[in-house]
Design goal:
Pfam families: Abhydrolase_3 (PF07859). Belongs to the 'GDXG' lipolytic enzyme family. GO terms for molecular function: hydrolase activity. The protein is α/β, with parallel strands linked by helices. The chain has one domain: Alpha/Beta hydrolase fold, catalytic domain (Rossmann fold, 3-Layer(aba) Sandwich), CATH 3.40.50. About 35% of the residues lie in helices and about 20% in strands. The protein contains 13 helices and 10 strands. The strands form 2 sheets. The protein has an 8-stranded mixed β-sheet with strand order 3-4-6-5-7-8-9-10, sandwiched between helices. A two-stranded antiparallel sheet has the order 1-2. α4 links the parallel β5 and β6. α4 packs across α13 and α5 packs across α6. The N and C termini lie far apart (about 45 Å). The N terminus is likely disordered. The chain binds 2-acetamido-2-deoxy-beta-D-glucopyranose (NAG) (4 copies).
Length: about 350
């Protein structure tokens, strides 16, 4: 395999494409070049590398462990979801239902899709290993649709599930619903969770039991020690994360905004309600990820607010490890299984 090809393949398996990071670490790195994107004068992005995609596998006659299919959520916004159903569920008695996991993919709010192989494979494993119904949302990306667009879509899908007559969703137990996301998707799961806490009656019979935040993407204007220590990280160095915030936050706000910095102004007031509702919030992180200190700060805030927080931090590794490395994905599956019981 040529070096160039190897780099491309490796980069595709990461959350962002860091083809130039190691060589450009000392010179000023151009994040546009590293991400292989062009910002057009009209504010849209030309994405020159699209991560590989996988089609769904809806045919129950095929010997697959997990069926999947794509369904439209809101045609006017072109949002849709990929639903994953463990094959075995078709053989269960109708009253035996599986937990429901609503999943939000990562990619710095600007990349990736629910169809991306990277996240598709993770959702298949998640559905199989935890025997859950998974709904993976295709939300709108920035900068074409800046935040809060992705948050609106993420809440809207909960209402959509509630009102849907989809036969696969009949296998889901709406009273055991978890919101899960990785990286930017972890940020989305958190903010969607805050918004859902204000609408618990409107989304019934859907009942959220936990938010599962896998290396959630947060930021702030003041650098944390881990951001400084890992400023030239090969997966998500500061120029890349700074650009992602620039492209996704509402125009005119800085990184100390409530969407990017969850600890600002003492944290969201609705956390008091999340405490009373008894939702658990699981946070996954690792020391090799520049984001780890922000994740730790979030855990501290949640503790302080009396929210039932489950902390899962590991030594070493890098950003993206819980989706990118199947042996680490098991940690997430095991956590989900403890929530089921
Ligand atoms: C924005 O500009 C790009 C590149 O010139 C073009 O391909 C795209 O169609 C334009 N989009 C809109 C909404 O004008
Ligand atoms: C779909 O999106 C449109 C545009 O934002 C919105 O007005 C409408 O309420 C949405 N439909 C549903 C069913 O949520
Ligand atoms: C599917 O899940 C079962 C547990 O439910 C596990 O034993 C098995 O290894 C999984 N298979 C794959 C291919 O992940
Ligand atoms: C982000 O925006 C700020 C303010 O507009 C600017 O100073 C900075 O250079 C931008 N950073 C990146 C990486 O685009």
């Amino acid at each position: 395999m040529s070096v160039e090809r190897e780099r491309v393949v490796t980069a595709f398996s990461l959350c962002v494409y860091l083809m130039y990071a190691s060589t450009a670490a000392n010179s000023a790195m151009d994040p546009y070049k590293a991400l292989n994107i062009i910002l057009n004068p009209n504010g849209t992005l030309t994405r020159l590398s699209i991560p590989p995609q996988s089609p769904p596998s809806p045919d129950p006659s095929l010997p697959t462990l997990v069926l999947s299919k794509d369904v439209s959520v809101n045609k006017s916004k072109q949002t849709w979801a990929r639903i994953y159903l463990p094959r075995k569920a078709l053989d269960y008695p109708p009253n035996s239902k599986l937990p429901l996991i609503v999943f939000y993919h990562g990619g710095g709010f600007i990349f990736y899709s629910a169809a991306s192989t990277y996240f598709h494979d993770f959702c298949v494993s998640l559905a199989n290993n935890t025997q859950s119904v998974v709904v993976s949302l295709e939300y709108r990306l920035a900068p074409e649709h800046r935040l809060p667009a992705a948050y609106q879509d993420s809440l809207e899908v909960l209402h959509w599930i509630k009102n849907s007559n989809d036969p696969w969703l009949r296998h889901a137990d709406y009273s055991r619903c978890y919101l899960m996301g990785e990286s930017a998707g972890g940020n989305i799961a958190y903010i969607a969770g805050l918004r859902a806490a204000a609408e618990v009656n409107q989304i019934k019979p859907l009942q959220i039991k936990a938010l599962i935040l896998i290396q959630p993407f947060f930021g702030g204007t003041k650098r944390t020690p881990s951001e400084i220590r890992l400023a030239e990280d090969h997966t998500i160095p500061l120029p890349i994360t700074d650009l992602m915030w620039n492209l996704s936050l509402p125009v005119g706000v800085d990184r100390d905004y409530k969407y990017s910095n969850p600890t600002i102004k003492g944290g969201a007031k609705i956390l008091n309600r999340i405490k009373l509702l008894g939702w658990r919030v699981a946070v996954f992180g690792c020391e090799g990820d520049p984001l780890v200190d922000r994740e730790r700060d979030l855990v501290k805030l949640l503790h302080y607010k009396g929210v039932h927080v489950v902390r899962q931090f590991y030594q070493g590794f890098r950003h993206g490890i819980f989706v990118g490395d199947p042996t680490m994905s098991i940690k997430v599956f095991n956590l989900v299984k403890t929530l089921h019981s």
